[in-house]
C-alpha cells in the first residue's frame, strides 16, 4: 500500500424529497439529478455508503479516472447508483448483480439514463464465481474498470467474490472498490486482495468507516 490516502467526508449531496414515497432517494452527481428506488427486501436494493463514496470520488477525480468511452463493469451493482454515475461520465457500463436484484436495478438505470445522450448501460446477471467463462468469455469481455461497493460483509461468498475480481481484472484493468469496514472479515479480505493485486488506499471516509481502494494486476 503506497501513498497516504485522502481523508474525505461523504457529502450530503442528495436533495430533499420532492415525492412522498419513502422508497425513493434523490441524489445529484455530475450535474444530474438521480432518483433511486430502494427496496427493503434485499441487501442489494439499498444505497450503502460505499456507493456514495465511490460516486463522489468518480465525480471529483475525472482527470485521474477518465471513464469517457471506457468499458466499465460493476459487480454487485445493487440499486445502480454507481453504474448510473459512470454512465453519465461517458462509460460503456455493464451493471451486474444477482437475479432477484435485477428488476429494481434495471428500473433505476433505465429511468435515470433514458433521456440522456450517452452509451446505454447493459444490465446482466452475475453470480460471483459461477459461469464466468460461459457468460463473460475473456476473448470478448475486457474491461478498463471494475467497480465494486460494499460487496464485502458477513456472507459466505467471499472466496467466489475474490475469484470474480481476479477473473475480470486483466493487465490494464483498474479495480475500484469502496467498502464500509466493520468486521475482521473485511480486513481479512483486504489482506487477501493485497497478496494478489497491487493495492492502494485512495481515500478514507472516517465518519462512515469507508475505505476506497484501487487495485491492479501484478504483471510479471
TrEMBL record:
Gene Ontology process terms (BP): methylation
InterPro entries (alphabetical): Methyltransf_16, SAM-dependent_MTases_sf
A Pfam entry, by short name: Methyltransf_16
Any one GO molecular function term: methyltransferase activity
Record key words, sorted: Methyltransferase, S-adenosyl-L-methionine, Transferase
Source species, domain of life: Eukaryota
Spans traversing the lipid bilayer: none
Protein name (Swiss-Prot/TrEMBL): MT21C methyltransferase
Organism of this sequence: Halcyon senegalensis
Taxonomic lineage from the root: Eukaryota, Metazoa, Chordata, Craniata, Vertebrata
